[in-house]
Amino acid sequence: MDLAIMGTGTVGSSVAELAGEYGHTVTAMANVDAAAIDPDGIDTAAALQRQQSEGQAHLGDADPDDVLAAEYDALVEVTPVTLGDAEPGFSHVEAALERDKHVVLANKGPMAERYADVRALEAESTGEVRFEATVAGAIPVLSTIEDYGPGTMTAVRGVFNGTANFILTRMAAEGLGYEHVLAEAQDLGVAEADPAFDVEGTDAALKCVILANVLAEGDREFSLADATVEGIKDIPGTALELAREDGRTIRLIGEVTGDEIRVSPRLVPEHSELAVSGTTNIVQLETENAGRLNLSGRGAGGPETATAILADVNRLPDR
Amino acid sequence: MDLAIMGTGTVGSSVAELAGEYGHTVTAMANVDAAAIDPDGIDTAAALQRQQSEGQAHLGDADPDDVLAAEYDALVEVTPVTLGDAEPGFSHVEAALERDKHVVLANKGPMAERYADVRALEAESTGEVRFEATVAGAIPVLSTIEDYGPGTMTAVRGVFNGTANFILTRMAAEGLGYEHVLAEAQDLGVAEADPAFDVEGTDAALKCVILANVLAEGDREFSLADATVEGIKDIPGTALELAREDGRTIRLIGEVTGDEIRVSPRLVPEHSELAVSGTTNIVQLETENAGRLNLSGRGAGGPETATAILADVNRLPDR
């Protein structure tokens, strides 16, 4: 397939780098300042090298506004997540579907904040919308729910944010306080300079909102406002010590059950499936006929998230 | 879709019971003695009730030989696994593909022992062959490998047999010997009267052979003869005690790496991902770009395996 990639950050760059390996051609690529467009296929390595050494305005000599009108089969939407109206990501999705192109998202905004709007546009289009990469990176959560049937899932819960999980793992392992471990995480590149999105639970909540929308199968629409969210900033080191004395630890758990979406720190048994370590994510699917399925692995990262995007491209019907 | 179910044992009966819930119609169903056929849909509950109370010859009044010529979209092959020529399962697959019907297997024989033959028939047919249920029951292993790309998987390993795993778990937990725990497992219905297939590692090996065939993507064909297999019958209780003193336990692990297929007991750290308990199965996929994916859950059982079959039906192209 021919791919147009909107967003050339960590994930977008990885998709551009790996697309050829999976048999796809990148025919357009854009950040907010510049674009590269070539219906016969961009030299992605050269474009990314220019972006790296000279700045993102040097990605290519085309206008970002021209990407949506370019030749492609599937739009890969990997611009930074935005809340509320989910713009400009939502407009990118809209433009692609109106031209009967497919859309593959890693940007959580549209499917968390405007799920029904996206599905309505999809219904009027011959293009399909897929978004495995919006929930738990490389872990095949949404395709599993899709194949087994959303109606057969009674609950979904898990550890959805690697930054928060890394911090809690280190706090428990070293007996150190939150601020100290956060600084360590930032030094390692595991936490951002402004870590609020991760440590306040917003990132995990958006993923749970998307899951709730998928499980509801169109009967009801959820957005971030429907989630009850509590992060990890107020957990003292002593809480983790007390937990350990009782054979437990603390993890930031997101759960979707019926109409309820909740993200909060929870005590879990020390060696339970939910007590994953470091930046690992885990998703537990409770099913009607097959008990519990556990899916765990890397929930974030350039190549990791790119594999989820390319798995989605693999599932699109041929044009 | 209309389904023809060959085999009315535990799994076949569950597929018949659940098919309606998933929007499918059972138009034919057979065991070795009798069949029920109705192009408008069988009363599966009545047929299974007759089989249960009067014996399998009373499933219905049709001839099993007529099922393959009946009206259906997908043949569900759930007859008991056979090795070598994989008959009669292979002939059932052949008959369906020659009529351009789809095939969904839980019977491991054809894809383990005659993989290339099945793929050759499939290439000449407009029917597709799917076999998620042949490896690790409800756990979505094959669809994950398919979506992410078999070529991106560098190794697959796991606990593939719940009977053997249950026995090892109980031996470690209770300090009891193999024979004693085997008897307990048979009482619970977790082990068969003749448990050889499970405890000698053959069942796990067949699953690993299927995985090796999938990963090889047609470059090479494997069968049971290519696997190195060692079961759990010779593990003394003392081995598990010694392991525990070292923070380890013993699990029957199957692994596929490159051209090597091996099933054998292994020492694993006590709380590692591979040290699943009871009848739980786990599969670890090592990927090129996304690190390790862990998928665990119920690897066997009527409803559990039926959900994998129905997930495969869900993935078939509409007729």
Structure description:
With 319 residues, chain A is an alpha/beta fold. Chain A is 37% helix and 22% strand. In chain A, the strands form two sheets. A six-stranded mixed β-sheet of chain A has the order 3-2-1-4-5-6, sandwiched between helices. In chain A, strands 8-10-9-7-11-12 form a six-stranded mixed β-sheet. In chain A, α3 links the parallel β4 (74-77) and β5. In chain A, α7 (162-174) crosses α8. The first copy, chain A, starts with a strand and ends with a helix. At the A-B interface, α6, β12 and α12 of A face α6, β12 and α12 of B.
The number of distinct β-strands of chain A equals 12
CATH class of the largest domain in chain A reads: Alpha Beta
Give the SSE order of chain A as H and E letters: EHEEHEHEHHEHEHHHHEHEEEEH
Structural class of chain A: alpha/beta
Distance separating the two termini of chain A? 8 Å
Mean pLDDT of chain A: 96
Task: Please state the CA-atom Rg of chain A, rounded to the nearest Å.
Answer: 20 Å
Tell me, briefly, the overall form of chain A. globular
Number of domains of chain A: 2
Kindly state the percentage of residues in helix of chain A: 25-40%
Task: Using the 3D structure, state the CATH architecture of the largest domain in chain A.
Answer: 2-Layer Sandwich
| Pair with the biggest interface | A-B, 37 and 37 residues
CATH superfamily of the largest domain in chain A: Dihydrodipicolinate Reductase, domain 2
Keywords (chains A, B): Amino-acid biosynthesis, Methionine biosynthesis, NADP, Oxidoreductase, Threonine biosynthesis
Pathway (chains A, B): Amino-acid biosynthesis; L-methionine biosynthesis via de novo pathway; L-homoserine from L-aspartate: step 3/3; Amino-acid biosynthesis; L-threonine biosynthesis; L-threonine from L-aspartate: step 3/5
Binding site for NADPH (chains A, B): 108
Pfam family, one (chains A, B): Homoserine_dh
